[in-house]
Amino acid sequence: MTECMATASRREFLRGALAAGGIVATSRLPLHARGNFEQLSLAYAHIKAGATKPFSVLHISDTHLTFANPDEPESVQKYRRIRTDLFGGRQFEALKDSVRWAKINADYLIHTGDLMDFVSEGNLVAVREAFGPGAGNVFGSIGNHEYWHPVEPKPTREACFAKCAKAYPYNLHFGSQVINGVNFVSIDDANDDVADDHAELFAREVKKGLPIILLMHVPFYTPRILEATRKYWAWNKKFRAEPPKPIALGRRGQEFAKYLRSEPLLKGILAGHEHFAMEERFSPTAVQHLVAGNFAFAGREVLFT
CA 94 from chain center: how many Å? Predict the structure, then answer.
């Protein structure tokens, strides 16, 4: 089929569908009318981190997988149905598309938490399948939903962490991965705080003398990020005067944030949690990059130079 014929065919298809008053689903378009990854909605960013060689990562977050094995309790099955309806039921498809896109177009895939919506055997199986040997280079951090379980009595945070740690291909408490001279450091801040040893572990990474990109699930809330959060989650409608009060971090988190703002080797922060995309200055040398929810096929390609 020639290019002119293909264009005409697509135009006739759209005209007919719209004339009937319908909304055209991408999946119904002829193959020549859509790309392989047209359902992915990607933002883009450039971080000048001082890399020895340019590279890119696909940053995704908040996939919220909602699987449960048939033999898991009815309370889990009920919660699975509710949450699957909430997130649209295509989360695993979005994750697989993101993994495949990253293998073709980027050097790494980074996921910053809430990969699963709740801890279940079905979700753990899905994580192993998505992030198995064929997934390419994968790194990331843990989210608050990796500690969530819908069954009473709920398992401890330690029990949830132990299950996830066996399925995820990266260290969930604190991790480091150097890519072309840039040190990607991940921490678990899913409890709106940091652990006792996070500042010490981070200081060890600083001693390496490499530029650092911090991976975390919950961002540090600047007034602008908090304002956007409250609008997105409909806590209030408009802010035109005084900025909203910041969400309180724990004492360790506040001290860690203060320390990070004075660290010149910190070149950027990749986070999620809020389900919307935003970029906000954090320190003289670093910008926070929040990525929208992967359950909605969203992500951000970040170029590092």
Answer: 12
